[in-house]
Amino acid sequence: MSLLLGLALLFAGPADAASVLRELEEAGKSLRTMQAGFAETKVLVLLDEKSEAKGTVLLEVPGRFRWNYESPQPSVTLVKDGRFARYLPRAKQVFRGAARGEADLLVGFGPGAAGLGKKYQVTLVGEEAVGGAGAWVLDLKPQPAQANAALFAEIRLWVDKGRHFPVQTRLTEPTGDHTTVRFLEVKLNARLPAAAFELALPKDVVEVK
């Protein structure tokens, strides 16, 4: 009976939010790069509008990532060295500024996973299947001391049970508007292109700050 009990405990998986956070943190320590496809859904509650976008995302630890939007309109959002650039090829415009909320789209990846319990009140909601695989569902709400400065009232993470990284993220604004990003065909620690975090801009691009 003791052997059966031991096996049951071994495969039971995490029973609380702290256990899931520890797994996220441990997985984050070994993360160097990530590349994936993504499907993004934005919902504007008051306007009763929903929009969808698709593309690819590249991440390099620490602090570099790139969103290549392919539809409905091509664009690139690049974050590097604490700054962001958003390039709209059709308009021939590039917007630049200090990075802020852009990083939350990749919350839970890499070293940043280690500080989630300090920044947020974390609750384990349950478990769901995402893309046919089991995932723990965590709700993250800003700690009271940081609530006024937070861009989002709540973040929900779906954490893959086997590989211990987020497979889906939902960011909810104070207005109730929310953005859900699902990561597809995720590759961890693969070599990225040499110019992954450089923007090739045309000479006639207009810079907006």
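The record above closes out task 2.4. Task 2.5 opens with a second protein, given below.
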Amino acid sequence: MRTKQVRPEKTQYEFELHISMGTESITKRTFVLFDFRTVKIFENFVYKLTVETKLNMDKKEMHFNIEGLSAPTIDLSKNGYAYFKYKLFDFKNNTYLLKLTKNRKIKCTSNLVISKNNIKLSKFSGKPFIKIIIN
């Protein structure tokens, strides 16, 4: 007798991107935090997301390419989602073109409006493989 195969739930998004503002405690510099996470929670290890970052602040463009997962470097077993965090320090209050790709194929674009104490998104286009959450 065979056991029933367990399949994971299908989700609308594979990844989440949490965008927030913060201040570094020592230097008191303000930054924008890009926190990429998988929706899936891994049972045995906390993996690292491999994300290629290309910024062109002169053209006001930010490009993040999610390439995949890399194995953890610790020996202890721990559960959780895979993640990648990027702090952007040298920004100006302006509108930036945010490009998100997965393996350089699936593409989403949006306008990211950064003001003194606020972040907004506008004009989202492309195939939604990532959910963007503004904190």
